[in-house]
């Protein structure tokens, strides 16, 4: 899922996202673990709202996304704000290949939900962990199985912005624990219509923890990914703090 059609209108459709609170939480976790500067990779960076905030906070940012269109939007934003020192890589994070190690990797807005089935998800975590220094962090959020079953489910959502209109249709597959999504974007005064289809996979916290362990990561904390408080049975998003283990280190 690369969000080709979404790139130009993603920010307009996502304008209610609380990037400031997300940035404060991520930055707080990084600094609490001694990661106050150095290289940080934003995996599935999209149009770079979090990437740019972290860059402004003093981190040397690498933005990784499968969509060249998303990276193009990010590059333009960086130029407009004078933050031109970003390294942007067009890659599938399940096949992540950085030039060296980073102090932390961050992935938000359910990027890892788009990676599946389970074996590919585990591989993506392994690739992320491979490039993180021992003692460094992998911070990521994921939509919960509760959200898939009770919020996404088989619902249809309509999203309207000034220059585009989106219809988002979900089809929940309980047996496979995933949601198949079809998106149609239309534009005022234009005949063209963009369509995309993709699948989000839901993983239990036990599955996520096991996958982290296999990647050499220790899950240190799980918060609610919306308000960053304690996790609840009806939380719609996990936010996971995982620490890269040193070679031979046991949990």
TrEMBL record:
<dbReference type="InterPro" id="IPR041698">
    <property type="entry name" value="Methyltransf_25"/>
</dbReference>
<dbReference type="Pfam" id="PF13649">
    <property type="entry name" value="Methyltransf_25"/>
</dbReference>
<dbReference type="GO" id="GO:0008168">
    <property type="term" value="F:methyltransferase activity"/>
</dbReference>
<feature type="domain" description="Methyltransferase">
    <location>
        <begin position="40"/>
        <end position="136"/>
    </location>
</feature>
<dbReference type="InterPro" id="IPR029063">
    <property type="entry name" value="SAM-dependent_MTases_sf"/>
</dbReference>
<dbReference type="GO" id="GO:0032259">
    <property type="term" value="P:methylation"/>
</dbReference>
<keyword id="KW-0808">Transferase</keyword>
<keyword id="KW-0489">Methyltransferase</keyword>
<protein>
    <submittedName>
        <fullName>Methyltransferase</fullName>
    </submittedName>
</protein>
